[in-house]
Amino acid sequence: MILSVDIYSRNTWWKVAFLGFCLIVGIFSLYFTDKIVSKLEEREKQQIELYAESLKYTMTSDPNQDVNFFFEKIKKSNENNTIPIIHKDGTGYLTAKNIEMPEGLSSEGKQTFLQKELQEIIRDDNPPIELDMTLHKEYIYFGNSRLLDLLRYYPLFQLAVVLVFGLAAYLFFDASRRSEQNQVWVGLAKETAHQLGTPLSSLTAWVEYFKSDPQYDPEIVKELEKDVIRLDIITTRFSNIGSIPVLKPENIIETIETFMSYLQKRISTKVVFSLDNQLNQRNTVNVNRYLFEWVIENICKNAVDAMGGVGSLKITLSETKNNKIAIDIKDSGKGISKQNLSKVFDPGFSTKKRGWGLGLTLAKRIIENYHDGKLFVKQSELNKGTTFRILLDA
After folding, report:
1. C-alpha–C-alpha distance, residues 124 and 122, integer Å
2. Per-residue pLDDT band at 74 (split at 50, 70, 90)
């Protein structure tokens, strides 16, 4: 059992390491792309500055000089179709480039619209380029290009892809582990049922022989027969593991009472059993009786161990607000510590020196996988006891 726990622990570490690797790749991608964005942002700024200088010289130079055509070439070489630009002249009049304006706006409407766009551009934290026109100053405001925005958000998208891939891989590994566990459970259960078959047949024949011989005490034979019947039930339980169990209406009160009567004679007489039926004539539940009894048995035996063979064990049946049957199994044992509450249903977990740590795990599988119900710790307090709750469809 220690070996199995180590293997599962190692698998968990592999998952954590894999997710950590995915996170590191995502962070590195984020850092690397941010560097590219910063360089592109600086390049676009230089492009706008060059555009602004060419615009300034074009507007202030002598139009009769041949140098003008040189500046026109600079302007054309720096023309862009992606970077949004708003030019504010000395009077505060706004003109725009690469900004779509709604059709049908008046001159005042266009200025109002550009004022709003200017506030959006300012939020990009790009300082405006100042044009000193001697008699007045003009400003060119520019935002981020579409490409720059895409690159800015691309690493976030990339990180999201890595995380989704990591999550998918984690779920795949987890599903593989669960599938492997299920195969082990099924194989072990089938082999156990097979191994019990031969000696059980022999024991059944011996019981029949003792019945026919008057020298044997009938009461002893009767109790022996009960144990043989119990072994047959256990064999049936193991046979049902791994296959789709047949659920049929069973009287839940009768089922629990029968088991309690059997268990009381085989445990300490210092354990007081009690049954509190609060159901309103809804005693029938669809269950597989063999497997359901196994669940009650595992929980009750754990409770008896927790009490050290001395205490009280109470089973309460009630109906919840959402029409489910609730079965509460309360003991007066040592309780479960907070750090162990999340582990009680884990395979291999046990606080007993000789415990296998499979009873509650198996019980949870039977209730949730085969009966579509719920099994959980309703309440636990150290040195006062624990209450397990089973929820089944009525």
Report:
1. 5
2. very low
Task: Answer yes or no: are the C-beta atoms of 331 and 303 closer than 8 Å.
Answer: yes
Longest dimension (CA), the chain: 138
Domains, the chain, in order of start with CATH, read 13-149 (no CATH), 245-393 (3.30.565.10)
Q: What is the pLDDT of residues 273-329, one digit of tens each?
A: 899 999 877 788 999 888 898 899 889 988 888 898 899 999 999 998 888 999 999
Sign of CA dihedral 355, 359, 360, 362: positive
Between the CA atoms of 75, 81, 82 and 83, what dihedral angle is there, to the nearest 10 degrees?
A: 30
Nearest to 241 by CA among 302, 300, 177, 187: 187
Q: Which residues contact 114 (CB under 8 A, 6 or more apart)?
A: 86, 94, 95, 96, 99, 101
What's at 68, amino acid-wise? N
Q: Quick: pLDDT tens for 330-389.
A: 999 999 988 888 888 887 777 666 655 677 888 898 899 889 999 999 999 998 999 999
pTM for this entry? 0.50
